[in-house]
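Q: Convert this sequence to structure tokens.
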Amino acid sequence: MDFIITSLQSWNIEIGSTIKNTAAEIAKEHRVLFVNPAMDIATRLRSGKSPHHQLRPVSPNLWVLDLPCILHSVGQLPFWLFRPLNRANNRTIGKHIVRTVRQLGFHDYIHLIDTDLFRSLHLKEYIHPALSIYYRRDYVIGVPYWRKHGMACEKFLAQQSEIVLTNSSYFAHQLSPWNPNTRVINTGVNLKLYDASLQWEKPDELQGFSAPVIGYTGALLESRLDGELIYTLAQRMPRYHFVLVGPEDDYFRNHPLHTLENVYFTGQKDVQDLPAYIHYFDVCINPQKVNPITEGNYPLKIDEYLAMGKPVVATSTHTMRDIFARHTHLARSEKEWEDALTTALAETQDTRLAKERIAFAHTHSWAESVKRIYQAIEEYKKQNV
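A:
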């Protein structure tokens, strides 16, 4: 099969990416064109950069397309203006995609839309895929930028797609009224990278720590992470080292957490370096806020923690309860978090539990995730011959 993927995320993103891993896994058997998001006028003015056309081979079956066009900035426009300008954007993108797939010799291609609410809204009309799949793996319409037009666009995408995919039953429940052919696929984990059996050199930031290390890896964002909870726990547990690995937004850069002696910020690290940090954490955490963005979100980092065999404490969200409850400790209140951390620390030397965590994480491989996409496609074809 031939696949075209349009996504909110660029292939050039420096942190781990579900859609990049999905594309790479599909490309092991099929041809894939990954279309980078086109630059809009606002981005052009902020960055001072100009777009350029480039078709880059990433692997024998995978290409990344950089679009040469500049799109209208439409996100905050009134509906009467959003509609025609966004359609014009889609027409421009579609023209470049069609030209590229002809160059590559793609035919009967499947269009996988990775939560790209605006730029992919009308692409079905312009690129004429054999099959359209809308994939919601994040609740982007909970972010202020997307609230104005996001819900209407997502409804339209879900209704016009032949298949809708989500990475949580919470999301599936929300989208199935718009499209009954809505399916849940678990996100995968890079098992070659997150391999507990490998030897890892201890990162410099962790050298000399004698007390237990409580660690987090990932972006530190006000909308998702509970900075006040971390602050309270660090104050109440002064003997524990809290290590936060990842880029910070302005909220975290200016948070009083930076004044605590037992809290350490490493900044952004290369994805390839993250397993070394996790290996030397005693307990891994995901202290999320509970809101519409996080409640149904599939936290990939939990699979990464478990693949390394680590005890995990996380905020109790729908997805955590639905998928990970048997292999993690879930908490909501500060007291529950304290108790869960104490319990998890008592498990650090339990090899049986570590093996169970690793075995569970291995059921969430990228191969298994993509296999479910193939199954959805095949079943749709059988039902619509």
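The chain has a mean pLDDT of 94.
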